[in-house]
Amino acid sequence: MTAARVAVTAIVALFAVYPAKAGHHQHSSVVSAIRRIHEQQVFRAGVDLTTFGVTVTDRKGNIVTNLAKDDFEIIEDGRPQIVQYFARGEGESSPDMHLGLMLDASGSMHSDMKLAQSAAIKFLNMVPAAEDITLVDFDTQVRITRYPQRDFARLVERIRQRKPQGWTALYDALGTYLDGAEQQDGRKVMVMYTDGGDTRSALTFGDTMDLLKASQVTVYAIGLVDNAGSARTQLQMTLRQIAESTGGQAFFPTAMREVESAYEKVLAEINGQYHLGYVSTNAATDGVWRKVEIKLNRGDLRVRSRKGYFAPYKPAW
Q1: Distance from the CA of 265 to the CA of which of 24, 71, 223, 312 falls in 20 to 30 A?
Q2: What is the C-alpha R_g of the chain?
Q3: From first to last of its 317 residues, what are the pLDDT tens digits of the chain?
């Protein structure tokens, strides 16, 4: 049994021993997400491709959008791979986008709730077309609803109605969202509004990082930590780790004008992201972590993406 497999078994055991801590309807969703941690996603065309969203910037941090397939090189566990799928930005060949919006409605957000609500609604007015939008709002409980774009008005009203209360089940909220996203084909982007604290989840931070590493979701965190006091630095670190593990970024605005600046950067990345896919030369189904490096033939540019993926896992019996 691999180390990764042991870790997943331990997490499932945690839910079996402490079901009351989760205490909500999301329990089965989070457990099912963990059990699928080693399942490699299948691209929408039905070909077993390992796919990556890739952001490229210059030394000043500007998004670079004019690269071609031959500019990229993929290395998996030290072995070169052949790029078999390539798409740029929001072009016709790009995969459909599924947008996730996560809103922390716990009591710790009392001072920042209005800013978070206004920020989320403003972002939705700016975002490009998406197949659907999944709203995850959470406090002690996790509530998740998927809206087609034609139901935009209902989505906005749902966001406006939330009032801060209860504990913070951030990690369980992420696990619940990732469970649903696992079943969606195409490109998945999550924008989360939170102070980064967690006081309620059954999942640990380590569990959540494993789930994020196994997913194909790009996370952008809008960290509202200005009122967090002495915990501010730790909360910023947590949100950076969550976002950067997926190839995304974390932003820490203190006023609406800074939120708008963060939006411009997030939207530039969404519109300028490259999509690469390949069939791994490693056919093993052992469930282990595979390190992936995406390189460019230009040394003046920087690449941001996921760092790898878990191989498919099939039991020996």
Answers
A1: 71
A2: 19
A3: 443 433 333 343 333 332 323 334 444 555 455 545 444 443 333 447 899 999 999 999 999 999 999 999 999 999 999 999 999 877 677 888 999 999 999 998 988 898 889 888 988 988 878 899 999 999 999 999 999 988 989 999 999 999 999 999 999 999 999 999 988 988 999 999 998 889 999 999 999 999 999 999 999 999 988 877 888 899 999 999 999 999 999 999 888 788 888 888 898 899 999 999 999 999 998 999 999 999 998 889 999 999 999 998 887 76
Pinpoint the alpha helices (H) of 182-246. 205-214, 232-244
pTM of the model: 0.84
Distances (CA, A) of 192 to 82, 215, 239: 34, 16, 10
Q: State both tokens at 311.
A: 């191989």
User: Checking DSSP bridges between strand 274-278 and strand 85-88, what pairing results, if any?
Assistant: antiparallel
Per CATH, the number for 94-272 is: 3.40.50.410
Indicate the residue type of 186: G
Distant-in-sequence, close-in-space partners of 122: CB < 8 Å, separation ≥ 6? 256, 259, 260, 263
